[in-house]
Amino acid sequence: MLQLSNEEIVKGIRIRNKDVFEAVFKQFAPSMYNIAVRYVKDEDTANDMVQDVFLNLWKNAENLDERAPIQHYLARATVNTCLNSIKKEQRKEAYTKEQMHTATPAETTHQLLEHKELEAQYRYALEKLPDQCRRVFEMSRFKGLSPTEISEQLDISINTVYAHLTTALKKLRVVLINKQ
After folding, report:
1. pTM above 0.85, yes or no
2. How many CB atoms lie within 10 A of CB 72?
3. How many C-beta atoms surround the C-beta of residue 64 within 10 A?
4. Greatest distance between any 2 Cα atoms in the chain
5. Most exposed of 106, 150, 165, 170 (fewest Cβ within 10 Å)?
6. Regarding predicted confidence, which is higher, 51 or 107?
7. At what angle do helices 105-127 and 131-141 cross, to 10 degrees?
Protein backbone atom coordinates (compact mmCIF):
# COMPACT_ATOMS: atom_id res chain seq x y z
CA MET A 1 0.00 0.00 0.00
CA LEU A 2 1.19 3.49 -0.79
CA GLN A 3 2.23 5.65 2.15
CA LEU A 4 1.04 9.12 1.21
CA SER A 5 0.41 12.30 3.15
CA ASN A 6 -3.06 13.77 3.21
CA GLU A 7 -1.92 16.51 0.83
CA GLU A 8 -0.55 13.93 -1.64
CA ILE A 9 -3.78 11.91 -1.40
CA VAL A 10 -5.96 14.94 -2.14
CA LYS A 11 -3.75 16.06 -5.03
CA GLY A 12 -3.71 12.51 -6.44
CA ILE A 13 -7.50 12.21 -6.23
CA ARG A 14 -7.97 15.67 -7.75
CA ILE A 15 -5.98 14.67 -10.84
CA ARG A 16 -7.86 11.36 -10.80
CA ASN A 17 -4.80 9.19 -10.26
CA LYS A 18 -6.21 5.65 -10.18
CA ASP A 19 -3.37 4.25 -8.07
CA VAL A 20 -3.93 6.86 -5.36
CA PHE A 21 -7.67 6.34 -5.46
CA GLU A 22 -7.28 2.56 -5.21
CA ALA A 23 -4.89 2.94 -2.27
CA VAL A 24 -7.35 5.24 -0.48
CA PHE A 25 -10.18 2.82 -1.14
CA LYS A 26 -8.23 -0.16 0.23
CA GLN A 27 -7.16 1.78 3.28
CA PHE A 28 -10.45 3.47 4.24
CA ALA A 29 -13.30 1.39 2.78
CA PRO A 30 -13.33 -1.13 5.69
CA SER A 31 -13.71 1.57 8.35
CA MET A 32 -16.37 3.37 6.24
CA TYR A 33 -18.18 0.04 5.92
CA ASN A 34 -18.19 -0.32 9.74
CA ILE A 35 -19.66 3.16 10.09
CA ALA A 36 -22.35 2.40 7.49
CA VAL A 37 -23.33 -0.90 9.14
CA ARG A 38 -23.92 0.89 12.44
CA TYR A 39 -26.39 3.23 10.73
CA VAL A 40 -28.22 1.07 8.21
CA LYS A 41 -28.01 -2.28 10.06
CA ASP A 42 -27.68 -4.20 6.79
CA GLU A 43 -24.42 -5.42 5.25
CA ASP A 44 -25.49 -5.18 1.60
CA THR A 45 -26.91 -1.70 2.07
CA ALA A 46 -23.74 -0.67 3.92
CA ASN A 47 -21.63 -1.90 0.99
CA ASP A 48 -23.80 0.15 -1.36
CA MET A 49 -23.37 3.22 0.83
CA VAL A 50 -19.57 2.88 0.83
CA GLN A 51 -19.56 2.43 -2.95
CA ASP A 52 -21.66 5.60 -3.28
CA VAL A 53 -19.29 7.53 -1.04
CA PHE A 54 -16.24 6.57 -3.07
CA LEU A 55 -18.04 7.14 -6.35
CA ASN A 56 -18.94 10.66 -5.20
CA LEU A 57 -15.35 11.17 -4.08
CA TRP A 58 -14.20 10.34 -7.61
CA LYS A 59 -16.88 12.51 -9.27
CA ASN A 60 -16.30 15.52 -7.00
CA ALA A 61 -12.53 15.21 -6.68
CA GLU A 62 -11.93 18.84 -7.63
CA ASN A 63 -13.89 20.01 -4.57
CA LEU A 64 -11.65 18.31 -2.02
CA ASP A 65 -10.00 20.54 0.56
CA GLU A 66 -6.28 19.80 1.04
CA ARG A 67 -6.42 20.92 4.67
CA ALA A 68 -9.16 18.48 5.75
CA PRO A 69 -8.01 14.93 6.49
CA ILE A 70 -9.38 12.54 3.86
CA GLN A 71 -10.48 10.12 6.57
CA HIS A 72 -12.69 12.79 8.17
CA TYR A 73 -14.15 13.71 4.78
CA LEU A 74 -14.97 10.06 4.05
CA ALA A 75 -16.46 9.46 7.49
CA ARG A 76 -18.71 12.52 7.23
CA ALA A 77 -19.72 11.57 3.68
CA THR A 78 -20.55 8.02 4.83
CA VAL A 79 -22.69 9.24 7.72
CA ASN A 80 -24.52 11.74 5.50
CA THR A 81 -25.16 9.12 2.83
CA CYS A 82 -26.56 6.73 5.43
CA LEU A 83 -28.76 9.38 7.04
CA ASN A 84 -30.13 10.48 3.67
CA SER A 85 -30.95 6.88 2.82
CA ILE A 86 -32.70 6.36 6.17
CA LYS A 87 -34.73 9.55 5.75
CA LYS A 88 -35.74 8.52 2.24
CA GLU A 89 -36.91 5.12 3.50
CA GLN A 90 -38.87 6.73 6.34
CA ARG A 91 -40.62 9.07 3.90
CA LYS A 92 -41.41 6.15 1.62
CA GLU A 93 -42.86 4.13 4.52
CA ALA A 94 -44.91 7.07 5.78
CA TYR A 95 -46.29 7.66 2.30
CA THR A 96 -47.18 3.98 1.89
CA LYS A 97 -48.94 3.91 5.27
CA GLU A 98 -50.85 7.06 4.41
CA GLN A 99 -51.94 5.61 1.08
CA MET A 100 -53.06 2.39 2.73
CA HIS A 101 -54.99 4.32 5.37
CA THR A 102 -56.81 6.57 2.94
CA ALA A 103 -57.82 3.77 0.61
CA THR A 104 -59.13 1.05 2.92
CA PRO A 105 -62.14 -0.77 1.46
CA ALA A 106 -64.19 -0.35 4.64
CA GLU A 107 -63.77 3.43 4.62
CA THR A 108 -64.46 3.63 0.90
CA THR A 109 -67.64 1.58 1.34
CA HIS A 110 -68.73 3.73 4.27
CA GLN A 111 -68.14 6.93 2.30
CA LEU A 112 -70.05 5.51 -0.65
CA LEU A 113 -73.00 4.66 1.59
CA GLU A 114 -72.95 8.13 3.13
CA HIS A 115 -72.87 9.67 -0.33
CA LYS A 116 -75.83 7.54 -1.50
CA GLU A 117 -77.80 8.40 1.61
CA LEU A 118 -77.15 12.10 1.18
CA GLU A 119 -78.11 11.88 -2.49
CA ALA A 120 -81.37 10.12 -1.57
CA GLN A 121 -82.15 12.87 0.95
CA TYR A 122 -81.42 15.48 -1.70
CA ARG A 123 -83.75 13.77 -4.21
CA TYR A 124 -86.45 13.55 -1.55
CA ALA A 125 -86.08 17.26 -0.79
CA LEU A 126 -86.30 18.09 -4.51
CA GLU A 127 -89.55 16.11 -4.82
CA LYS A 128 -91.06 18.16 -1.98
CA LEU A 129 -90.61 21.41 -3.93
CA PRO A 130 -93.56 22.88 -5.84
CA ASP A 131 -93.47 21.90 -9.54
CA GLN A 132 -92.53 25.29 -11.00
CA CYS A 133 -89.96 25.92 -8.26
CA ARG A 134 -88.33 22.50 -8.85
CA ARG A 135 -88.33 23.03 -12.64
CA VAL A 136 -86.55 26.40 -12.27
CA PHE A 137 -84.03 24.96 -9.81
CA GLU A 138 -83.24 21.94 -12.03
CA MET A 139 -82.84 24.14 -15.11
CA SER A 140 -80.41 26.33 -13.18
CA ARG A 141 -78.39 23.65 -11.40
CA PHE A 142 -78.56 20.60 -13.67
CA LYS A 143 -78.77 22.19 -17.10
CA GLY A 144 -76.61 25.21 -16.24
CA LEU A 145 -79.04 27.74 -17.67
CA SER A 146 -78.84 31.38 -16.64
CA PRO A 147 -81.82 33.09 -14.99
CA THR A 148 -82.43 35.00 -18.25
CA GLU A 149 -82.54 31.78 -20.29
CA ILE A 150 -84.91 30.17 -17.76
CA SER A 151 -87.10 33.26 -17.85
CA GLU A 152 -87.35 33.10 -21.64
CA GLN A 153 -87.96 29.34 -21.81
CA LEU A 154 -90.67 29.29 -19.14
CA ASP A 155 -92.10 32.67 -20.15
CA ILE A 156 -91.86 34.09 -16.62
CA SER A 157 -90.17 37.22 -15.33
CA ILE A 158 -86.55 37.12 -14.22
CA ASN A 159 -87.65 38.21 -10.73
CA THR A 160 -89.88 35.14 -10.55
CA VAL A 161 -86.90 32.97 -11.52
CA TYR A 162 -84.84 34.49 -8.67
CA ALA A 163 -87.74 34.03 -6.25
CA HIS A 164 -88.09 30.34 -7.20
CA LEU A 165 -84.33 29.78 -6.81
CA THR A 166 -84.31 31.44 -3.40
CA THR A 167 -87.32 29.42 -2.27
CA ALA A 168 -85.81 26.17 -3.55
CA LEU A 169 -82.51 26.74 -1.76
CA LYS A 170 -84.24 27.61 1.52
CA LYS A 171 -86.52 24.58 1.42
CA LEU A 172 -83.72 22.21 0.43
CA ARG A 173 -81.57 23.53 3.25
CA VAL A 174 -84.35 23.04 5.81
CA VAL A 175 -85.17 19.50 4.64
CA LEU A 176 -81.53 18.41 4.52
CA ILE A 177 -80.69 19.89 7.92
CA ASN A 178 -83.75 18.23 9.51
CA LYS A 179 -82.79 14.84 8.00
CA GLN A 180 -79.39 14.93 9.67
Report:
1. no
2. 10
3. 16
4. 101
5. 106
6. 51
7. 130
- Residue with the bigger pLDDT between 101 and 64: it is 64
Which whole-number Å values give the CA distances from 126 to 87, 88, 149, in the listed order?
53, 52, 21
Kindly state the helix (H) or strand (E) to which residue 91 belongs, with its residue range: helix 70-102
Going along the chain from its start, the domains and CATH numbers come out as 6-102 (1.10.1740.10), 105-179 (1.10.10.10)
Number of CB atoms found within 10 A of residue 97's CB: 10
> For the purposes of burial, counting CB atoms within 10 Å of the CB of 36, is it exposed (0-12), middle (13-18) or buried (19 or more)?
buried
CB 10 within 8 A of CB 66: yes
What's the pLDDT band for 106 if we cut at 50, 70, 90? low
- Using CA atoms, how far apart are residues 179 and 139, in angstroms rounded to an integer? 25
Report the amino acid identity of residue 50.
V
Tell me how far the alpha carbon of residue 44 is from its chain's centroid.
Answer: 28
